[in-house]
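Q: How would the structure tokens look for this protein?
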Amino acid sequence: MYVDKQKDLAGKLRSAGIVPVLVLEDVDTGLKLCETLQRAGLRTAEITFRTKAAAQIIEAAKKRFPDFLLGAGTVLNRDHLNQAFDLGAAFAVAPGFNPALVKLAADRDYAFSPGIATPSEVEQAHELGVRLFKFFPAEALGGVAMLKNIIAPYRHLGLSFMPTGGVTAANFADYLAVPEIVSVGGTWLGRADDLKAGNWDKIEKDAKAAMEALKRIRG
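A: Here is the predicted structure in token form.
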């Protein structure tokens, strides 16, 4: 069932805590980055469909790292959604709420979560079976304070949220302090400039620091 898939995913994302949001241009870099993140203790990542290499990277990473909780991001159409799960993605997310994609995910039992920015979108998505929401762009919309206000009238429904967009090493702890937030997504782990420069030691150091902070927050 679609609802059950989301609830199961919410539990896995809560265990992960941090989901690096990755924009990657080639397979080799993608695999090396996943390996680096895994070595630092991270076990999940979101590969975004913002580049032509995304599908290849998802497929290759799934084969190389079968225990990695691998997600697909920036899923904007039916082709992206079907392709993501055909290639082995464990979950998929979108920046916005497209009812057609939610209905497709429900029909095919995909662990797909749309992005929301308003209470109206929460209600519309909830009506279609969504229980796990991406909140995007988090900081631009008002950050933790805004999300707390969105959550408040729906707390009794047991909904879960994963904010992305402006979440950084400096503020992710504030988000994770909110019980309904299962994980945060961020681009600060595996930045484009670090990848381009080959700063693999820095990427691993940043990832380890994030994991150490996560342990302090959640134990």
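The chain has a mean pLDDT of 96.

Residues 2-212 form a domain with the TIM Barrel fold (CATH 3.20.20.70).

Upvote if useful.
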